[in-house]
Amino acid sequence: MKKPASHQRLEFLDALRGIAVLVVFSFHCVTAAFHTGIFNHIFGEAGVAIFFAISGFCIHLSFCRRSDWSVFWLRRFFRLYPAYFLAVILFSAGPMKDTWQISTHLLLIHNLFAKTMYGLNSDFWSIAVELQLYAAYPLLLLLARNIGWRTTVWAIGILEFSLRLGVGVLTTVIGIQVPVWLIGMPFFYWLSWSVGAMVAESYVKKEESPFVRCSALLFVFVGIASAFVIDTLCFTFYAIAAAVVIAKAIRSPVKYLPALSAHLGRTGLWSYSFYLIHHPIIGLTVVALKSFELSPWLTFPVYLALYPLILGIAGGLYALVERPGMAIGTLILRKPASALPAFAE
Question: Domain extents for the chain?
Answer without folding.
Answer: 5-339
